[in-house]
Amino acid sequence: MTLTELSRTLSMSHSTASGIVDRLQARGLLDRGEHTTDRRRTTITVTGTVSDYVRQLETGPAGRLAAAFERASPRQRCDIIKGLKTLRKLLGKDGESKT
Fold it and tell me: pTM higher than 0.85, yes or no?
């Protein structure tokens, strides 16, 4: 998307949109690049950091937990399972803590 398209979509002035894009770019969330057909225009794209974050939001907490479990070593997986079993015992069958 170009800066002009962005400012129109958000119903804000070009200078306001430009300032916001500058701040997001400084944080590494957006990139500015040369338009493919018109070098006078600048395109704005989200970075991989933003794309990764959106994917994590889409998968939800269960997706992030599953991905973390997949990255764990076999020993770490055993430790996680042991910890979850301990937590389940502490919570009891009805979910109330048993001490």
Answer: no
